[in-house]
Amino acid sequence: MDKNKLKALLWKWHFGVKQVLSVLLVFLVVLSVVVLPVCLLGLTSAQVGMGNGEVGVSLVPLLDKYGQPAVNADGTFYPNDKFELSYSAAFVSGVVFEKVEVSYDSLTFNLFDCSSDFGSEVGFGLFEVLPSAPAGTYSFYFTAWGSRFSVSENTTISVVVESVFSVQVVEYDPHFTVALTYTVPTGSGSSYDKPFALIIRYDGNGPTFNLNQRAIIDDYTWTGYAQKLPDINSDMQQALSPNLTVASFLNQTSSNQFLTQGLTTKTSQPVVNVDGKSYPNTELPLMFLWEANTNHTFIWTKTLPTTDGSGYAEWFELQASLIFPPAINPNLDNQTVSQEDLQNQLLDQINSPNGTLTTTPFGNTITAMDSHNKDIEQIAKNTGINKNQTLQNLNPTHQYFTSQERYAKLQYQLNPKVAKEIINQNFTNNLYYNLTLGCNLFGVPRYFNANVTCEHEYFDKPINATAYKWNPAQQNWITDNTVSIEATFESALNTTITDILRSNLEEQTTDPIALKMALADLYDCGPQTFKGTGTIETNLKRTSPLYYNLKITATGQPQKVTLQKTVQLNFQTNNSYNLPLNFDPNSPLQVTVLSDSSQNTLLNLDAPVELGGLTNVTVYLITNLPTENWNTLQKNQLDLKLLKTLDLTLPQEQVQMSHEHEQFIQYYQGYSNVFEDVLGFHGQAQIAVQKDPTTTPLTGQGEALLYVEAINIWGTPFHQITPISSYSKPHWDIPLNEVTIYLIAIIVIAIIVSFIVYLIKAK
Question: Which of 339, 431, 494, 732 is most buried when burial is the number of CB atoms within 10 A of its CB?
Answer without folding.
Answer: 431
